[in-house]
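User: Hey, my collaborator sent me this sequence without any context and asked if I could get a structure. I don't really work with proteins. Can you help?
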Amino acid sequence: MKKIYYSSSRWLILIALCYSFQFTSCKKFIEVDPPVTSVTDGNVFLGDATAAAAITSIYAQMVNTRFALNMTVYPELAADNLKIFTTGFTDYTTYFTNSLQAGDGGIPIFWNSIYPYIYQVNAAIEGLTKTTTLTPSVKQNLLGEAYFLRGFFYHHIASLYGDAPLALTTNYGVNNKLSRSAVTAVYAQAVADLKMAQSLLGDSYLQKDANTPYGGDNPERVRPNKSACTAILARVYLYQRDWANAEAAATEVINKTSQYGILSLDQAFLKNSKETIWALQQVRANVNADEGDFFILRNGGPSSSRDQAVYLSPKFVEYFQTGDQRRLKWINSVTKAGLPYYYAFKYKVDAGVAAVSEYSIVLRLAELYLIRSEARIQQNKVTEGIADLNVLRERAINISEPDLNLRLKLLATSLSKVEALAALNYERRVELFCEWGHRWYDLRRSGQIDAVMQITTSEKGGVWQSYKALFPVPALEIQYNGALSQNDGYAK
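Assistant: No problem. I've predicted the 3D structure and written it out in structure-token form, which is a compact way to encode the shape of the chain:
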């Protein structure tokens, strides 16, 4: 049975880490002898292998605890792309009806998932900074990965909660008294961390030792490299409306044409595809991406079973323009009681298939074209922005369709800025659906969230209020730390 798991308490940090080291069937870069101690113990950073394993364990946890899957499913449930077949699961229903409360227990709370990761990353940065026994290049690469991860996690905290504490050490005495920093400061910290990571990491993808580059043209893209840093940096700049820097960062990655490219719709989500910038690999042998296992509806359609309760909103399916092959290639359906139920089909492999052909993609090149397009349009470079959108539309055209009226059309370069931004909104929604919370983030930052969710939440059986655009800080965290404040609208 496929389920979504989560960490519910900050006190589970070390338990989760130890859990990630249990898997002896791990392969590729995760095939590192497990360290005898945790990432929070400086001894782990005395040797190259154990130091690499300490950072690897964080990637492993992101998969094993289903954090990566959660970051796709729950924000998507909160937005307008998904439906639930049953109200029998509190976690699904709470997010789906936009009914989160500060005192919620027993459901995934991202604050309680992300800050333990940040703690581990801080421990890694401290341990790696102090050690004098590692191979210098290994130390540099692992520090780069650690700073990348911290910037990555702070980006998500800011996007989900707004203001947030900036924990930059492992000192509990300091961390337990931190107040929430302004969201601008949180994003600034993410930028600083990502720039530091850029300065430490190279273009190559590294093997399990965090030192040896892969040879050939098909590297495992499961350790972040410099381009992964630049890609997240481009997104953070975009979210801050720093259009010039967003354009420059996106262009830096797009221009690496020997390493990255836009592939056919059928190839985009294959493991190590040229479109992949960074992916998470299952640490269990012969297991594909969790997204396929979760989203694919089996024969018989959705049901009251937890592992078959989520499907695509019919309104979203109808949103696709005529001839858009993303509707055909990335969405599939089953029939139940004579009715079609649609599901995300970007990942084609369900549970139980031994041959591994798909990893969970965190960053892919298509997003960089969308980032650059938006940044250019906002700088009144409308023609250039439309050209970026047409790169993605071109691969969504069925060139074998003889009726030109049934083909998706390229966008006209004569579009106004307003029309171009509307086209961009369409492209972001149909390109990035069911990936890492993009739809929820886009609704918030574009200012559309109230207009969309007033209607959508009512249709989902909830009541929308503007304050729900930010998730609540867990009440227990405020109880532990009196310096923390709650987001407006929520009870402490």
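In plain terms: The first strand starts at residue 82 and ends at 84. You can pass these tokens on to your collaborator as they are.
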